[in-house]
Amino acid sequence: MGDSSSQNVIMVSCPQDVPDPAALCDALIDAITETTPNTDIRQSDAASDAALKNGDIALTLRLSHISETGIGGHLEWRTAKNSELNVGPTVDFNVMDKTMSAIFYPKFAQGLLKSSPDLFTR
What we know:
Strand content: 25-35%
C-alpha cells in the first residue's frame, strides 16, 4: 500500500439539485477512477475552495440543463500549479425512446472526461 499522504488527490464537487445526485457524483468518480486508478478521489461540497498541494485537482461538475430527454454540462478545475479556473467544453447527452435517468449518468460522465483530455495533466 502506498502512503496516502503522498498520493495525488482529486476533490470532486457535484450538483445536488438533480434527480439522484449521489448517482451522478458516483458516476463521475467511477469514470475518474477508470482514467486515473492510483488517485485518491474525495467528494466535497465546494471543490473550488479546497486547499491543494502539488499534483492535486479541484474538480467541479456544472450542469447547463437536465430534462426528461437529456443532460448537459461541463467540468471546471484548478490545480495547485495553476489556480486559474480551467473550463472544459459543454457535453450534451440526449436519450431517445427513453426518459433521462441515473442509468445514463455513467455515459455522460465518461463523455465529460473524454472532452477534457488536459484535465489530468498536472
